[in-house]
Design a protein that fits this description.
Alpha-Beta Plaits; 2 domains; 133 residues; binds iron/sulfur cluster; 22% helix; alpha+beta
Length: 133
């Protein structure tokens, strides 16, 4: 790092990001945005808007954001200045439909609370399971 008081561009580790959106909710410039599709969550960083405050890195619960020793970014369009991470959603163990949470969030929850089996069922399958008892 050149100077401790100068921060570089944030980098997002696609292997660690779980699409929770904590970083985007803390970003004061809306440089980080979260988009949901049917199968996945897309986290997008618009580097041109970023003021290098590092609030996103502080907010990330899985240490997926690091502040790089990279101070300049060059690009002619928003497309060229965007960093994107796609996080797949978890799927229902019973019917295969996508769930609201990402596969990594569910894995992490299962690691922390091993008895949480019902978390990988969609709402319909949860109801079916309860009614079948
Ligand atoms: S980078 Fe961190 S805070 Fe942001 S969505 Fe991914 S896991 Fe959540
Ligand atoms: S460093 Fe600050 S402005 Fe840049 S993406 Fe993170 S929270 Fe947003």
């Amino acid at each position: 790092m050149l100077f401790h008081s100068i921060r570089g561009v944030p980098a997002i580790d696609p292997e660690k990001c779980m699409g929770c959106g904590a970083c985007a909710s803390k970003c004061p410039t809306d440089s980080l945005t979260l988009h949901r599709t049917r199968d996945s969550i897309l986290l997008e960083l618009n580097v041109a808007r970023c003021i290098r405050c590092a609030y996103c890195a502080e907010a990330c619960p899985n240490n997926a954001i690091t502040i790089e020793d990279k101070y300049t970014v060059i690009g002619r369009s928003r497309e060229e200045l965007a960093i994107r991470v796609i996080v797949p959603l978890a799927r229902c163990d019973s019917c295969g439909e996508p769930l609201r949470h990402s596969a990594r969030e569910v894995e992490l929850a299962r690691e922390k609370v091993p008895d949480l089996n019902v978390i990988k069922l969609c709402d319909k399958c949860k109801v079916k399971r309860v009614l079948a008892r």
